[in-house]
Amino acid sequence: MASVDSPYGVAALWAASDAVTRAVLLVLLLMSLGSWYILLLKWLGLRTMQAYGRAARVSFWRSNTVQQGVDGLDKRSPFRFVAAAALEAMEPQGGLLARVSRQDWVAMRMQRAVEAVQQELQSGLAFLATVGSVAPFIGLFGTVWGIYHALTAIGMSGQASIDKVAGPVGEALIMTAMGLAVAVPAVLAYNWSLSSTKLAITEVRAFANDLHAAMTAAQTEV
């Protein structure tokens, strides 16, 4: 049996659409691709973050010195980044920084390192939040634009029968569905990424606090 091309659907919507409708479709497509791309990067990044955390728990705290522990961590590990910042802060400072106590300076440098890790982990969340909040309205704009064209066609033809209305209105409603199809995954990805990122940041902050306590105790013993 020969296949019959449907006069309705996304393909028919694209073929019969004007520049505005195609622009809306392209924007929704780019938003969707961007959301899935960020979600994939977040999933891979958080899995790697968990591996770095396990390595820090296993090897770092068994080291005799902080430097030995840093050398045992992966160069891309945020835990190594925080520990290296603490080691750098232990070096003698000159100028105005010489007036700051070493413990306070170490604490400040570690806090800044943790904030840098947090900023890196939270990258992309703003895009997901924007897509989740804006995509439905972009789809709704496409729907309104499509209904406007449908009503214009009805007015010009002078007929309001089902065969005249079903196609244009159905294609216009596809825009609403596409807006929701883009927004819902983005919202779910945002919520999952936010909760997972908070857990990862909490682990990094706990590592920094433990390291600062260990270094303070070592200085006190000396």
**Helix count, per DSSP?**
7
Record field, number of beta strands: 0
Task: State mean pLDDT (0 to 100 scale).
Answer: 82
Q: Provide the low-confidence segments as ranges.
A: none
Please summarize the sheet with the most strands.
none
Radius of gyration: 28 Å
* H/E element order: HHHHHHH
Structural class: mainly alpha
Relative helix content: over 70%
Description:
By secondary structure, this protein is mainly α. 81% of the residues lie in helices and 0% in strands. The chain has seven helices and no strands. It has helices at residues 10-16, 19-59, 66-71, 78-90, 102-121, 125-157, 162-221. Helix 4 (78-90) packs antiparallel against helix 5 (102-121) and helix 6 (125-157) runs antiparallel to helix 7.
Descriptive keywords:
single chain, 222 residues, mainly alpha, 7 helices, 0% strand
Write the layout of secondary structure elements.
Layout: H1 10-16, H2 19-59, H3 66-71, H4 78-90, H5 102-121, H6 125-157, H7 162-221
Summarize the structure.
The protein is 81% helix and 0% strand. The protein is an all-alpha fold and 222 residues long. The longest helix has 60 residues, at 162-221.
